[in-house]
UniProtKB/TrEMBL annotation:
Keywords: DNA-binding, Transcription, Transcription regulation. This is DNA-binding transcriptional LysR family regulator. PROSITE patterns: HTH_LYSR. Pfam families: HTH_1, LysR_substrate. One of its GO terms (biological process) is DNA-templated transcription. Residues 1-58 form the HTH lysR-type domain.
Amino acid sequence: MDWNNLKFFLAVARLGGLTPAATELATSVSTVSRHIDALEETLGVTLFLRRQQGYLLTDAGSALLGHIAEVERSIRAVERQGDAVRDVTGVVRLATFESIAHYLLMPALPAFTARYPQLQVELLVNRNLADLSRREAELALRIMDPKRDSHDPDTIAQPMGRFRFELYCTPEALARVDGDWRQLPHVSWDSAWFRLPMVDWMKELFPGRAPVLRGNSMQTHLLAAATGLAAALLPDFMGDGDARLVRATAVEADTHQELWLLYHRDLRASARVMAMRDFLTEMCRGVLGDSKVNA
């Protein structure tokens, strides 16, 4: 079937004749007639009764009109969606931490930029929290617990999922200690980060033992593990995705962390911000699964 014939059929069916259909489609009467004849020949049915006062739909024509109207509505919906995507322009600023930016967000960004080619992303990676009320960023992905961590009442906090910290090392490092992970050297955080729960978890895993390395960067911890220098406590979405690493042991402590998306209420009307919000929700659902965080 030549689907282009359906356009001519719709015009004649709605306007009742060849001449008004030709006018609407900016073509000739003979062209409209030729497409109608071709469609009837393809389907093997008569779609119109040709009368002097105009073209009247047959029963077969009325049935076809109902089906084509559904197709047209679907096409219009797709066109509107395309218009909405084209309307998403400008710059959207997202603030988050290093591990989330590098190992959750960056692998997904090509799909985002392909979906919204007119939208530019400004990614702010910093261990200091961006002030959303002062528009230092428009959205923020944070590890937090809203019951414990305060945030501006005008800021919407949306749960994105949960992940665990696990202990990782290379297979060679584990073999050197005959599988006894407790004998592995380990990496921990510097003194400025003593309040991090990961510091306490490492003390529980390696009681009374000093780390061979301290660092204030998750990337440093990952590389310490990947090079065989030390065991590192890493988010599972980092460690499980690195072929150089294995889990040294099953960590018994509750090392779950909650990931939240924050943005100011006033930005709910922003197409840019809502496009990023929806994409981040989709991304986190795909990587972290459907695990829910209690709001």
